[in-house]
Amino acid sequence: MVMKKAELAEACWTALADHMPHDISLETLAEACDISVDEAVLHGGDVTSLILAQLEMLDSQSLTTSADDFADDPHATIYEKLLEGLMMRFEALAPYRAQFDHLHKAAQRHPLLALHLTHQLSHTVGKLLHLAGDHSTGAIKQARILGVVGTLLRVRATWATDESADLGLTMKALDDGLKKACEWAVSLRVLTPDDIAGQRSE
């Protein structure tokens, strides 16, 4: 069942490069995967579920790479690791800008899709913060996640058109955005000045 869902999710992701989500049907995906529509429903659920599954897979790959890199540099600050991990994600997703353009346009018209995508992104950011050494919990952790997610959503527009070497424009926008988010977090007591000064991960 897991393999069938992964196959359907990949087919859906491929179709998303050329089509809006509402123009992708389970019937088409079932045909592409050589299974019945009933099997597609059983294994994949619906198109939104398949899109989210593919995003989860791509983010899991990026997080695994980040975890390995963080282990090689244990003395980096939480901020440095967070910035590196988020840039690694932007780099890994760069080949799929067409898919994200269609998702962005669809999410503007469909609030439920936007909610699902934001939840998935929040889940990924929460994992990355933990890997970077931020082991906060509860409301503080949720506030930090929301701050990072908000920054990513603002930086998306820069990333979507960034053709600079090594995504330099995205890197600058992300660094600037995270610093501003940190300043707001300090004012709201979600972070302390020591965090901004260079808190080391444990």
Which keywords apply here?
single chain, about 200 residues, mainly alpha, 10 helices, elongated
Task: Provide an overview of this structure.
By secondary structure, the chain is mainly alpha-helical. The chain is built from ten helices and no strands. The chain has helices spanning 2-16, 26-32, 37-44, 47-72, 78-93, 97-109, 111-132, 138-160, 168-187, 193-198. It is elongated. The termini are far apart.
Question: How does the SSE layout of this entry go?
Answer:
Layout: H1 2-16, H2 26-32, H3 37-44, H4 47-72, H5 78-93, H6 97-109, H7 111-132, H8 138-160, H9 168-187, H10 193-198
Helix pairs in contact: 1-4, 2-3, 4-5, 4-7, 5-7, 5-9, 6-7, 7-8, 8-9
